[in-house]
Amino acid sequence: MIKFLDLEKVNNRFRDEIDSRISRILDKGWYLQGEENETFSDNFAKYCGTKYCIGVANGLDALNLIIKSFDFGLGDEIIVPANTYIATILAISQNGCTPVLVEPDINTYNINPDLIEEKITDKTKAIIIVHLYGQVVQMEKIWDLAKKYNLKVIEDSAQAHGAFYKSKRVGNLSDASAFSFYPGKNLGCMGDGGCVTTNNEELAAKIKAIANYGSDRKYHHIYKGINSRLDEIQAAVLDVKLKYLDKDNEKRREVSKYYRDNIQNPKIILPKVYNENSHVWHIFAVRTQERDKFQKYLQDNDIQTIIHYPTPPHKQGAYKEWNNLSFPISEEIHKTIISLPISPVMTIEEIKKVVEVINEYK
Ligand SMILES: *Cc1c(COP(=O)(O)O)cnc(C)c1O
Q1: Among protein residues, the one whose CA lies closest to atom 5 of ligand 1
Q2: Whole-prediction pTM
Q3: Is 87 in the pocket of ligand 1 (CB under 6 A)?
Q4: What is the model's pLDDT at position 84?
Q5: pLDDT tens digit string along 278-302?
Q6: What angle do CA 22, 25, 31 make, to 5 degrees?
Q7: Is the shortest distance between the CB of 194 and ligand 1 below 6 Å?
């Protein structure tokens, strides 16, 4: 079976380094808010080119903390792509804000910048963009709108560690960016993890405090905070893996290039790419009108696929109030999309087999 993502193989490449870092933590007996978190946060901030990085418990919390720290709340509207993973939208709802869904561009699967302005009202406070599947959002129009209407821009970078726009990395393209280090992400830990990157000193301090019971120093609580911290073991694992992120992303690019150069089947629509060097291919999503049949065919040929995602957020039970709304582009994507195996540990034989099997599909 060609796995969608062989995580055991991904992480076992670093077993010795991870083992020794975890041993060091056992020797020290210090598990939260210590040196490992500090080292990784510094290194990840440097990697992204931002002044600050705050380790938190997961990607959803990272988004949540950004929204909270801007003091957005009841009545405030936040623009978000209709086809994102539901976490982005949940973070908005959880703060009492109103998510305003905007259709994606069918070619990039990212928010369509031309459809944003018509959704801006005097209640709009921010635009959250999502670099979906690892492809960076074309930022120029987003920045222009933010300037024109005095809005914050927030990145959901959970699927795009290492991607860049012009000369800047994802995480450094907005007022604040949320990352997830969920195991399957391009930079993933061995459990839950996340972070916020920003260049805003005041915001960084506030997020750090809110994530730690609203405390700026021990037993001194200036916000009604939460508990959302990146633990030492996860920070150590991430610090090991960060060194290999660019190489791993390069490998993903090679797999993607091979797929795009060699998959030739009129029934399969390949993804479109804005910038070959920038895309980090968290997901290699193709589209087909016969998605279920195609998925079963691949399964029968020992190729595992996953669907990102089968149901659009506005059709979910969690958002019953939206179930009758219509977002045709998003719905078309959710109905036809399917993700092929892609990872830094795929062998050339596996990549070739995926291509062969797909080219023989009738
Ligand atoms: C994974 C993901 C999240 C959530 O991250 P968690 O660490 O699982 O909370 C948010 N947004 C997007 C786009 C994601 O892919």
Answers
A1: 59
A2: 0.98
A3: yes
A4: 98
A5: 999 999 999 999 999 999 999 999 9
A6: 115
A7: yes
